[in-house]
Design goal:
By secondary structure, the protein is α+β, with helices and mostly antiparallel strands. It has 5 helices and 7 strands. A hairpin with a 2-residue loop joins strand 2 and strand 3. Helix 1 crosses helix 3 and helix 2 crosses helix 3. The longest helix is centred in the last third of the chain and has 19 residues. 22% of the residues are buried. This is Ester cyclase. It comes from Actinomycetospora chibensis. It holds the Pfam family SnoaL.
Amino acid sequence: MSAGPTDDKATCIRSMEIMSTGTLEDFAEVYTADALDREADEYPPLRGPEGLHRSAERLRGAFSDMRWEVHEAVQDGALVVLHTTMTGHQTGTLTAYGPDGAVSAVFPSRGRSFSATQTHWFRMEGGKIAEHWANRDDMTMGRELGWLPPTPGYIVKMVLARRQAQREAKA
């Protein structure tokens, strides 16, 4: 039996909630075994609940009090769209990876908070999420966190943190 539109929207809203505090078991309840997160940049790429949970852990390590406020939830067939605002406080380092898995950028914490709008797109399959995309306002987030425009001192911190992350990746 397939889930109805209301259930699908609730599943997608739940997926945003568990990004902040959910366990691997929580992720398995809302994502298919081979779910694809088109926004993840972790390496090696993992699909399914494990990959989504790893993305959540990476974000949790960088942002405390991370959460999403859902403003709108709409569905058309197998597609669910959420309009959200993500908020949090950067208390850890955020590392980004390129398509080859190499460290591409590192953003050390400046201890600031942020609030940025996002739109999340989900393709549903059998009542679970099979695919995820997002449109994020990363420029606002970067400005609020003090990443943009980078000061000379922050650029030095970014370069040193990137070198450290690259050394750790090789170890």
